[in-house]
Write a structure and sequence with these properties.
Elements: H1 3-9, H2 12-18, H3 23-45, H4 51-63, H5 65-73, H6 81-94, H7 99-111, H8 130-138, H9 140-154, H10 168-192, H11 196-220, H12 229-232, E1 235-236, H13 240-245, H14 252-257, H15 266-273, E2 280-281, H16 284-294
Parallel strand pairs: 1-2
């Protein structure tokens, strides 16, 4: 059964239940995520014992706001529209990823998942050598790409096919707005003689980015270039803590099959789709234990 047949098998009542959004569920999840970030930031600023160690979990929480941006690009974490827009902008500005532009990028990824030449995620090939793998995991290429994207858009050089011509001025304005916010933060920090943002934002994000890279590689790495969303995307059967951190996006094949399902309903969708999933992994450690040796010819490629 492919994803279209699976969706056709759902009853109208099931579809209504699965696609019901909720401000309460979204706000609760958001408060927990942002609350943990604020708490760790307070500990770092207070220089509690071993405070430098806390910058790692702080960074992981920060970079995983990407999964909120991803969810908000579908307008599903909240029922209220402005909450989705605000969540997308908050998370995008924190991780240096233009939220409006990312929405166009991500919709093209969903429309052409794993289609070479059309899926924008395939524009940057998955690592096939140890050097590429280590560079990818370092996070350095993604920071260069994010900053380059903002500067390129600010210069009016957005030539991405997935961005409608009529919307490119908005993408340019978005880039200038982001630059403006960052300049205000920089100026304020210099004026106050404060290095707080360095220790609660910039260094933690650099430390946390490798964990996001390892997580994201499992979504489609070594998946087939086919149209079936139950086969071209991987669901990772990880623990509850990782699912909480990633807004349930480890249920990735389910998300691609039915992207209008909000994060808090994905466990329900998973139970319905479980027997039809083609590509699953029991955890991220398990995935990389098979993926990494495979790039050196040590074991069979992860499937």
């Amino acid at each position: 059964m492919d994803h279209k047949s699976f969706l056709a098998s759902l009853t109208p009542a099931q579809c209504r239940e699965l696609t019901e959004t909720s401000d309460r569920a979204g706000l609760l999840h958001l408060v927990l995520h942002l609350g943990a970030i604020a708490l760790l930031a307070a500990f770092v600023l207070a220089r509690v014992p071993f405070w430098p160690v806390l910058m790692l979990p702080q960074g992981i929480l920060l970079v995983f706001l990407f999964t909120l941006l991803h969810e908000a690009s579908h307008s599903t974490p909240f029922r209220t529209r402005w909450l989705n827009v605000a969540a997308a902008h908050l998370s995008g500005y924190v991780i240096l990823l233009p939220p409006r532009w990312f929405r166009y990028f991500h919709f093209a990824h969903h429309r052409f998942t794993q289609v070479p030449g059309k899926d924008p995620e395939l524009a940057s090939p998955k690592p096939d050598t140890w050097a590429q793998y280590l560079l990818y995991v370092s996070g350095l290429p993604v920071w260069i790409d994010h900053l380059g994207t903002i500067l390129r858009h600010a210069a009016g050089r957005c030539g991405d096919e997935f961005v409608p011509e009529a919307k490119r001025s908005m993408v340019r304005n978005e880039a200038w707005a982001m630059i403006g916010v960052y300049l205000v933060l920089l100026t304020g920090s210099i004026a106050l003689g404060s290095t707080a943002l360095v220790f609660i934002w910039l260094i933690p994000m650099a430390l946390g980015q490798p964990f996001l890279r390892l997580y994201l590689l499992a979504e489609h790495g070594r998946c087939a270039h086919v149209a079936n969303m139950l086969e071209n995307s991987r669901t990772t059967l990880t623990n509850a803590a990782v699912r909480q951190l990633a807004w349930n996006m480890p249920y990735h094949a389910e998300h691609h099959s039915y992207p209008s399902v909000p994060f808090h309903k994905l466990p329900v969708l998973h139970r319905l789709a479980a027997e039809h999933l083609k590509v699953t992994e029991k955890g991220y450690s398990s995935f990389h234990a098979r993926y990494a040796p495979a790039i050196n010819g040590g074991v069979a490629a992860a499937k």
